[in-house]
Amino acid sequence: MLKTYDFQDQVRQLDAGIEMIINDAPTLLGLVGMNDEAIYNTKYEWMSDRLNSNLSSVSGAKTAGDTVIDLPATDGEKLRVNAIVVAGEEYMRVTAVNGDQITVARGFDGTTAADLADGAELRIVSRPQYEGENPGTDESHDRYVDYNYAQIIERYAAVSKTQQAVRTHNVSNELNYQVELRLQEATREFNDWLIYGRRMNTSGIPRTTGGLLYFANANGAKKENASSGELSASLLNGVMEAVYQRGGSVNTILTNTAGARQISKLAGDSIRTERQDTATGHRISTFVSDIVGGNVATVVVDPNFPKNKVALFDRNILSMHPLRPMYDEDATIPGADYVSRQIRGEYGIKVKNANEKIAIIENISTTVS
User: Fold this and answer.
1) CA separation, residue 368 to residues 98, 232, 256 (Å)
2) Same domain, yes or no, for 97 and 236?
3) For residue range 3-14, what is the model confidence (pLDDT) as tens digits?
4) Contacts of 150 (CB under 8 A, 6+ apart)
5) Closest CA to 66 of 115, 111, 121
6) Are 175 and 323 found together in one domain?
């Protein structure tokens, strides 16, 4: 029997087509790509681990004479008797630890005691030990588990049998051409999942997978408010340092076009930026922070990212995985005067260590002076 089109009844894997599209796209998905590692359930989990922090802060303002300092919840675990901490120019020695409250000797080693503002940073310089001490207290933490849901993506293409039979320039198979267009639309949707996706599994509505901004917010990632101002080297350096202090590192700065232009204005400072000449002038390809070791971050311009935000993160924590890789199959109803293909796939996103390895600068100017 003659067929009206050459792939009727075939089921085709479309992952290769998706890869060809995203490799050419100036988007977050183009940077991250599609991970071949499969997930095995609609709800899937992963484990994250972290180093113990050497930073704490003061809970409640203290005068220069106060010797009892309150810390944020669970931060007392970071200290032990005889630990040396520094706040500004003042060093202190810990003389007692009681839960999340420490007693200190102020003005240690000849430094000058000073008032401590609420939220003032306390850096743990060292935790010295006596010679011949017994084993210490275990300071390991259980790895923490995070999770997400797989989401179904669907597209449909249909062409009348008349249109399928008509020959047109540059299109030898109209239905196949329409499938390729639907793949491009699906790729655009995948990219929005990575940025804006929300983790939901509520009765009566389809499952959705959470993305970068969702996990940053849900896990308490570092946030900085630019107060409607433009990006500056100082602001970027400060946020990258905050990520470093949490135990992470930044290798990617994700921004919209306005943020990219603001970063481009920093090109005059060759210490912090590198320029790459192109046919249209120059563009910022990397930003080198001034923290110790100098994190080097690739600037990724994605027109789909929020205009008033910039995300700084380690791109190795972000990935998209298949539960059912993208495929299409014949969806023509017998006897219908059209041919059609049904496109489906099911994918989920992983965002590891969102608390430590993501920072969001909010409320940046959407214009460039």
Assistant:
1) 51, 12, 12
2) no
3) 555 666 676 666
4) 39, 41, 42, 43, 44, 207, 209, 323, 346, 347, 348
5) 115
6) yes
> Are 151 and 311 within 8 A, CB to CB?
no
Provide the domain limits for residue 102.
Answer: 55-126
End-to-end, the C-alpha distance of the chain in Å comes to 67
101 and 217 share one domain: no
Same domain for 199 and 103? Answer: no
Tens of pLDDT along 67-107? Answer: 999 998 888 888 899 999 999 999 999 999 999 999 999 99
**Does one domain contain both 187 and 306?**
yes
- Size of the chain, expressed as the number of residues it contains: 369
Which residues pair with residue 341 across a beta bridge?
157, 330
What's the Rg (C-alpha) of the chain?
A: 27
- Listed in order, strand segments (DSSP E) in 71-141 are 84-87, 90-98, 101-105, 121-126
| DSSP assigned state of 200 | B
Q: Give the closest residue to 92 by CA, choosing from 83, 129, 101.
A: 83
Query: Which of 340, 311, 185, 339 lies closest to 250 in space, CA to CA?
Result: 311
Per the domain annotation, does 3 fall within a domain?
no
Distance of CA 287 to the CA centre of its chain: 17
pLDDT tens-place string over residues 134-159: 776 655 555 678 999 999 999 999 99
| 32 & 73 share domain | no
DSSP code, position 114: -
**Residues of the chain under the 50 pLDDT cut:** 1-2, 269-283
- Identify whether residues 315 and 169 lie together within a single domain: yes
Q: Kindly list the distances between the CA atom of residue 92 and the CA atoms of 60, 86, 121, 122, 182, in Å, as whole numbers in the listed order.
A: 17, 6, 13, 10, 64
Question: Can you read off the two tokens belonging to residue 309?
Answer: 């935000």
- 135 located within any domain: no
Q: What is the pTM of this model?
A: 0.74
Task: Give the total number of structural domains in the chain.
Answer: 2
Q: Is the dihedral of CA 199, 356, 241, 115 positive or negative?
A: positive
Give the SS3 label for residue 105: strand
Both 200 and 252 in one domain: the answer is yes
Q: What is the CATH number of the domain that holds 20?
A: 3.90.1690
Q: Which residue has the tokens 């059912």?
A: 324
